[in-house]
Amino acid sequence: MNVEEILSTLKELGQESYKKVLLKHDIKEPLYGVKIEELQKIRKQIKNGHELALQLYDTGIYDAMYLAGLMVSPELMTTNQLQSWAERANAPVLREYTVAWVAAEGKHGMTKAAEWIKSREEGIASTGWATLANIVAITADKDLDIPMLKNLLTYVAQNINSSRNRVKQAMNGYVIAVGIYVKELNELAKQTGQTIGKVVVDKGDTACKVPFSVEYIEKAEGKGAIGKKKKSARCL
Questions:
Q1: How confident is the model over 27-65, as pLDDT tens digits?
Q2: I want to staple 216 with a disulfide (CB 3.0 to 4.6 A). Which of 8, 142, 170, 211 is the partner?
Q3: Number of domains in the chain
Q4: Residue 227 region, left (φ>0) first, then alpha (ψ -120 to 50), else beta?
Q5: Cα–Cα distance between 227 and 229 in angstroms, integer?
Q6: Cis peptide before 147 (omega within 30 of 0)
Q7: Residue 230 falls within a domain, yes or no?
Q8: Which range marks the domain in which residue 157 is found?
Q9: What is the rounded distance in angstroms from the CA atom of residue 140 to the CA atom of residue 146?
Q10: pLDDT for res 197
């Protein structure tokens, strides 16, 4: 399949009812409203789709951009390509899932995350925190910079309440990820969660809520999931 054939397929698979749901979640036009399970089916049909994924992302069509994140080979992404993807992502889902997933699975993830969290742009900063959350979820503790992660927990505790909307949510997600996936920092993450309390974020015309980090981490503890890493950031 080439880009034109994929776009034609996406257009056929689009559902107006699902498109309306996506629009409520701050996803911008152009989009067709293709469900993720349908995007996964297309992904499975395509082998060695890295270059094709780059072309799909360049279309600026939400469904194609999300599919690109599922198809691309993260280890082949350059720092410039990651930066371009982050800058062109025009929806929270693309920033905090698609781009964060791809960055975390590649070799430049930590470098870009450390750079992005310092950005004055809300979308870029939230992408950075989401990338960090994914990195700790898939990286062995021995390969993580534990002192840096501790310092970032302190930074979150001191700055989350004065941060912008999506950045607050992504910071909260970072606390949760560290508490669940980095066994050594489990208690410190819970202490951080207690300090920041429940995070309030404007989610627009949706029923979505931001989870209280301490409760979320303790729920994972109850399942014996602390320290158990994910195989990949992306749901493939």
A1: 999 999 999 999 999 999 998 899 999 999 999 999 999
A2: 211
A3: 1
A4: left
A5: 6
A6: no
A7: yes
A8: 109-236
A9: 11
A10: 96
